[in-house]
């Protein structure tokens, strides 16, 4: 700008000696010098007093302190060693205290010596056999072994489906053979779970030397189970839909069928997650246009659905299947009733009528028997609901064995807790690496808060695990995992990820460079002349 | 015919004002759709002054709602009385012109307490200055487009006029009103204060000058400093009046409205620029392109840039305070966040207050080129805006390039003004340099 303008006579050409006197400009008046200095000071004071604080204030990056060491110790698997305490109670019908104690001591010794269940801390205690099994007794122990010495039947063992109870009839064998038998039955009940747990840990830093080697076949099976199941959530929405290809059936007795066939399972599962249930009926449901549709097979007189059509069977465009209802994933169960002329309809290769879509839900084809009612009764739905129940267990990640549902649930709780702790820990590790690598990204306070919460919850979950409070451990691990993901995907952090420091030059220079040149030059010139004058005067 | 000439010779102001008012009203009567068409133009209506947004705010206010809740209305609350008509805008224009006339007649442009321009006889007739304002096509379009920035312009001119009459309290109050209507006139506080101080001291100086012998006339006169108010004290009083007036207006607004919401809505909008509707200014394109992380920093840089000229102009042009005011108005018109042609038109007209220096600018500088560029951008700006947004055959760069040329032409005019004012001052110190080429060292 023109603020520094001090017009002066243009020096004439040097060749003209007669005008030499005029060549040098007349000296400035002191007032003019002072005005110029004041102006330069005025500009610089705006820059220094207002511009500089503003620059620092608006462009400084807020980096909250993260407990990096703790985060890394979690990520490296040093903060916790997975060990699952199991309390097993041996109830015998034997009245003799000594022989009962001997059996318990013998079993304890066997578990200490063997390496069959390395991941578990097994604690065996004696108990009293009572015929009427009370629900609260269930809570004292993870597994209750009833030894019925008085039974005359041959050696056998069975798990009760709705209780963590192993009924053992040692038969006529001696005490040592009986304890050997009980030992093997207990190991059998937990072998699958242990395999699954060590598979979970095998790829993480938490892997322990105690882990057991798995065959490739077992690994594929476990992987398939994991991919099929939904991610763990505290709330699932179940949607049961009846799609009729024609106008009938137009109603189903789903309430009664639910009560009879599914509610017992849901009651058990509700210890781990909560469930909401919706149902709907849709008539004249057309096939998806992307599939070939059923083919009539002359030989069997049945309609066949090709295996390749199964993935596109659900007509996502026209069937009203909500992707999500509120918080938590939706599990869809679709019952499809084909038209009379296309009945019976089944899958070509296997002859089956139901299949499972991983992490989405289950589909079934219902071929009505000859009587064409407009409504499906609860009895008609029995087989359907049992298949759905089976699919539900797979979709929520319930392990297929052992046969007792209660033990499977306990198993699932431990597996879910383990995988959530592993995932939260690895997220913490990734976050810590990210903040160390990108020194210019902002770390808002919310991230630090989430990280603290994650670590606190992880510690609590591990404490719960060590003390055998598996349901609490699961709840804490889930919160820990949610918080860790929230911290990692904080949007204000992600925005700055790809902004290296050298790009800042390109941001500042185009505007501030040209502005700075006259400011700096004027200041330098003025300071130099000030020095020259000082030198002259001294 | 004779009577018209006679009327013109006797009452030029009456004739000018009545014809200007008639022109405005006739345009509205002849083309009833014209005001609404102009209201929709981005060159005239900005988000902080648009007439349509005023209607929205008024609608909400009259139904007992907080007009600032919707996030559309960003204008000051006292306008909310009733919808201003075109007659009110015409009246404001006439009053502004009349005030400009008084400023020109006061001689503040060419005579101050320590300086009288050697070219003072070349100044324009005050009526011509008023005519330059009233008949300026940019002013005319703005009047018909009815943005509320017209109120701010009116109060700024009023404040300068009161400063020329050496009335510090009314001047500070008028400036407070202007700043209250739209934020940026607050930057005029130092130059207008200086002008007012200069006019307050002037009578004493003139008296001293007259009281001296014939020899001292035209030379520096020793003035009794005690007879004059102290600069610092005057400045503090002026500032205090300004602050109290603003506080009073705020309290008044709070009484009208249900909450204090209006303060962030009215005054943070130009500061943080949430609405990036294209306008003839330099901000919108820059902040569309700016990275979010640096947005706040550059908002500060742009505002500090405007702010940083305020005091240096006062220092350099302390002998010609009205020139400092005009130059600062130019800075605001060019660099304000929600620029519009109304402010530019007002500034271009107020340059005529410095008409005694025009010969310097036109002989030595690039005034012709700048004015030609202004004409060219006035034509091409709307065309490119249409090509970009309606025809779809252009892009944002078309319009932004034109606004750059527009700003460049205005900056050239501003530097020319500063040059001629400074040259005028220099020639009074060194009469031997008159008419010669000079250069800056």
From TrEMBL, chain A:
InterPro entries in alphabetical order: PtdIno-glycan_biosynth_class_S
Major localization class: endoplasmic reticulum
A GO cellular-component term linked to this record: GPI-anchor transamidase complex
Any one GO BP annotation for this protein: GPI anchor biosynthetic process
Species the sequence originates in: Salinomyces thailandicus
Protein family membership: Belongs to the PIGS family.
Pfam families: PIG-S
Biological or metabolic pathway of the protein: Glycolipid biosynthesis; glycosylphosphatidylinositol-anchor biosynthesis
Regions crossing the membrane: 38-57
Region Disordered, residue ranges: 1-31
Membrane topology, from the record: Multi-pass membrane protein
Location(s) in or outside the cell: Endoplasmic reticulum membrane
Keyword Ion transport attached: no
Keywords (A to Z) from UniProt: Endoplasmic reticulum, Glycoprotein, GPI-anchor biosynthesis, Membrane, Transmembrane, Transmembrane helix
Listed name of the protein: GPI transamidase component PIG-S
From TrEMBL, chain B:
Predominant subcellular localization, coarse grouping: endoplasmic reticulum
GO CC, alphabetical: GPI-anchor transamidase complex
Bilayer-crossing regions: 15-34, 131-158, 236-263, 283-309, 321-338, 368-391, 397-422
Pfam families given in the database record: PIG-U (PF06728)
GO biological process, one term: attachment of GPI anchor to protein
Pathway: Glycolipid biosynthesis; glycosylphosphatidylinositol-anchor biosynthesis
Keywords (A to Z) from UniProt: Endoplasmic reticulum, GPI-anchor biosynthesis, Membrane, Transmembrane, Transmembrane helix
Protein name per its UniProtKB record: GPI transamidase subunit PIG-U
InterPro entries given in the database record: PIG-U
Family: Belongs to the PIGU family.
Subcellular location: Endoplasmic reticulum membrane
Alphabetized PANTHER family for the sequence: GPI TRANSAMIDASE COMPONENT PIG-U, PHOSPHATIDYLINOSITOL GLYCAN ANCHOR BIOSYNTHESIS CLASS U PROTEIN
């Amino acid at each position: 700008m023109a603020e520094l303008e001090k017009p002066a006579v243009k020096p004439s050409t040097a060749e003209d000696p007669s005008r030499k006197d005029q060549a040098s400009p007349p000296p400035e008046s002191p007032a003019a010098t002072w005005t110029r200095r004041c102006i330069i000071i005025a500009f610089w004071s705006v820059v220094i007093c207002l511009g500089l604080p503003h620059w620092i204030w608006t462009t400084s990056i807020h980096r909250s302190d993260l407990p990096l060491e703790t985060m890394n110790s979690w990520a490296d698997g040093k903060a916790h060693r997975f060990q699952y305490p199991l309390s097993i109670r041996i109830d015998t019908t034997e009245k003799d205290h000594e022989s009962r104690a001997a059996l318990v001591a013998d079993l304890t010794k066997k578990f200490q010596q063997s390496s069959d269940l390395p991941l578990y801390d097994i604690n065996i205690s004696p108990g009293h056999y009572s015929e009427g099994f009370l629900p609260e007794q269930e809570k004292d122990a993870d597994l209750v072994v009833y030894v019925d010495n008085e039974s005359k039947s041959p050696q056998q063992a069975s798990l009760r489906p709705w209780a963590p109870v192993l009924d053992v009839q040692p038969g006529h064998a001696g005490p040592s053979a009986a304890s050997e038998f009980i030992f093997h039955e207990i190991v059998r009940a937990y072998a699958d779970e242990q395999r699954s747990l060590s598979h979970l840990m095998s790829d993480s830093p938490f892997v322990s030397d105690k882990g057991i080697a798995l065959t490739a076949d077992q690994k594929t099976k476990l992987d398939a189970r994991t991919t099929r199941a939904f991610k763990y959530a505290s709330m699932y929405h179940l949607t049961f839909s009846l799609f009729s290809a024609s106008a009938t059936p137009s109603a189903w007795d789903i309430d009664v069928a639910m009560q009879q066939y599914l509610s017992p399972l849901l009651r058990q599962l509700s210890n781990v997650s909560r469930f909401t249930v919706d149902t709907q009926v849709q008539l004249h449901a057309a096939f998806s246009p992307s599939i070939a549709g059923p083919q009539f097979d002359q030989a069997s007189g049945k309609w066949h659905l090709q295996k390749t059509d199964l993935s596109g069977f659900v007509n996502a465009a026209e069937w009203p299947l909500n992707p999500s209802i509120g918080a938590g994933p939706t599990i869809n169960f679709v019952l499809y009733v084909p038209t009379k002329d296309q009945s019976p309809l089944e899958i070509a290769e296997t002859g089956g009528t139901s299949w499972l879509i991983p992490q989405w839900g289950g589909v079934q084809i219902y071929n009505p028997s000859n009587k064409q009612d407009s409504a499906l009764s609860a009895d008609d739905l029995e087989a359907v609901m049992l298949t759905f129940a089976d699919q539900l267990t797979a979709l929520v990640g319930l392990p297929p064995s052992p046969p007792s549902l209660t033990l499977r649930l306990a198993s699932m709780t431990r597996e879910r807790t383990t995988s959530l702790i592993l995932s939260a820990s690895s997220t913490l590790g990734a976050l810590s690496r990210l903040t160390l690598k990108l020194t210019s990204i902002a770390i808002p306070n919310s991230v630090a808060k989430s990280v603290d919460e994650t670590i606190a919850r992880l510690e609590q979950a591990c404490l719960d695990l060590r003390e055998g409070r598996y349901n609490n451990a699961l709840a804490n691990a889930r919160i820990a995992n949610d918080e860790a993901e929230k911290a990692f995907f904080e949007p204000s952090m992600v925005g700055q990820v790809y902004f290296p420091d050298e790009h800042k030059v390109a941001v500042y220079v185009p505007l501030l460079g040209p502005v700075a040149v006259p400011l700096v030059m004027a200041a330098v010139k003025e300071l130099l002349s000030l020095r020259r004058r000082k030198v002259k005067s001294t | 015919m004779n009577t018209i000439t006679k009327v013109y010779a006797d009452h030029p102001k009456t004739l000018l004002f009545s014809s200007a008012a008639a022109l405005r009203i006739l345009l509205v009567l002849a083309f009833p759709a014209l005001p609404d068409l102009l209201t929709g133009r981005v060159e005239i209506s900005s988000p902080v002054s648009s007439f349509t947004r005023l209607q929205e705010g008024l609608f909400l206010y009259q139904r007992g709602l907080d007009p600032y809740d919707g996030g559309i209305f960003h204008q000051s609350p006292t306008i909310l009385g009733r919808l201003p008509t075109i007659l009110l805008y015409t009246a404001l224009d006439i009053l502004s012109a009349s005030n400009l006339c008084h400023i020109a007649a006061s001689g503040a442009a060419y005579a101050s307490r320590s300086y009288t321009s050697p070219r003072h006889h070349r100044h324009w007739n005050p009526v011509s200055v008023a005519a330059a304002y009233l008949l300026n096509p940019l002013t005319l379009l703005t009047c018909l487009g009815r943005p509320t920035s017209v109120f701010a312009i009116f109060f700024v001119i009023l404040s300068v006029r009161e400063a020329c009459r050496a009335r510090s309290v009314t001047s500070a109050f008028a400036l407070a009103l202007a700043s209250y209507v739209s934020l940026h006139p607050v930057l005029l506080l130092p130059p207008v204060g200086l002008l007012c101080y200069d006019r307050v001291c002037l009578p004493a100086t003139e008296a001293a000058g007259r009281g001296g012998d014939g020899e001292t006339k035209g030379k520096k006169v020793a003035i009794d400093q005690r007879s004059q108010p102290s600069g610092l004290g005057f400045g503090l009083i002026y500032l205090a009046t300004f602050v109290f007036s603003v506080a009073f207006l705020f309290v008044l607004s709070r009484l009208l409205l249900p909450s204090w919401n209006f303060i962030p809505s009215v005054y943070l909008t130009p500061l943080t620029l949430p609405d990036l509707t294209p306008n003839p200014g330099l901000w919108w394109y820059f902040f569309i392109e700016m990275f979010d992380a640096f947005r706040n920093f550059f908002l500060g840089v742009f505002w500090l840039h405007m702010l940083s000229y305020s005091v240096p102009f006062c220092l350099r042009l302390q002998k010609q305070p009205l020139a400092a005011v005009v130059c600062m108005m130019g800075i605001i018109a060019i660099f304000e966040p929600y620029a519009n042609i109304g402010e530019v038109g007002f500034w271009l007209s107020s340059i005529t207050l410095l008409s005694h220096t025009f010969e310097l600018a036109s002989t030595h500088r690039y005034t012709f080129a700048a004015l030609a560029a202004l004409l060219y951008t006035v034509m091409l700006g709307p065309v490119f805006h249409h090509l970009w947004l309606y025809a779809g055959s252009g892009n944002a760069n078309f319009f932004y390039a034109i606004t750059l040329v527009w700003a460049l032409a205005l900056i050239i005019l501003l530097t020319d003004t500063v040059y001629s004012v400074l040259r005028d001052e220099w020639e009074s110190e060194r009469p031997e340099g008159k008419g010669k080429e000079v250069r800056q060292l």
